[in-house]
Amino acid sequence: MRLRLQAGTRVSPRTMVPSVRILALEVRFGVRNDAKIIPNVLRCFPNVETLHIKSGKPDQSTGKLNLKFWHESGTIECIRSRIKLLVFHDFRGGRSELAFLKYFFESALVLKEVSIRLSAGFTSAEEVHSKVASLGSRKRASETPIVRVTGWSDPQGGFIQSFKRGSEFSLQGPFANY
């Protein structure tokens, strides 16, 4: 299913899709207006248990969202009480990405596992560690979830994407490489 949600989309019974359990989103965290719609999008899917986020590469940065923004956006029910698995694809270590992950850790009560899949831009283990170390020291809402940080799967670091592959349930996930 492909939905086009825009800034200003209001959550109502008409825009909610309670049957969705696995959701994949591509978000350009460096583009402020793109990232600002995430709370409303997630509110449209109240029963999501597995969330795949692909961090899209912005054409140009138009502002960053900090942790304060996420707290001010209010409670997002699926993060708070439903999502057990978060897979973050193409993590670049940007401030807006880290703020989202920090909010997620602080809010998610039933989170069991987080898989952070790195973008090809990381050059050393030290760089990766410096970016994700702050996540380990965060106050967490759920009992300590398993956090895995993995590299990219193909030499170019890209992810093969298509709607046909995204709806193929035998594959590992919507942004997987095969």
UniProtKB/TrEMBL annotation:
<dbReference type="InterPro" id="IPR055302">
    <property type="entry name" value="F-box_dom-containing"/>
</dbReference>
<feature type="domain" description="FBD">
    <location>
        <begin position="72"/>
        <end position="116"/>
    </location>
</feature>
<dbReference type="Pfam" id="PF08387">
    <property type="entry name" value="FBD"/>
</dbReference>
<protein>
    <submittedName>
        <fullName>Uncharacterized protein</fullName>
    </submittedName>
</protein>
<dbReference type="Pfam" id="PF24758">
    <property type="entry name" value="LRR_At5g56370"/>
</dbReference>
<dbReference type="InterPro" id="IPR055411">
    <property type="entry name" value="LRR_FXL15/At3g58940/PEG3-like"/>
</dbReference>
<dbReference type="InterPro" id="IPR006566">
    <property type="entry name" value="FBD"/>
</dbReference>
<feature type="domain" description="F-box/LRR-repeat protein 15/At3g58940/PEG3-like LRR">
    <location>
        <begin position="5"/>
        <end position="53"/>
    </location>
</feature>
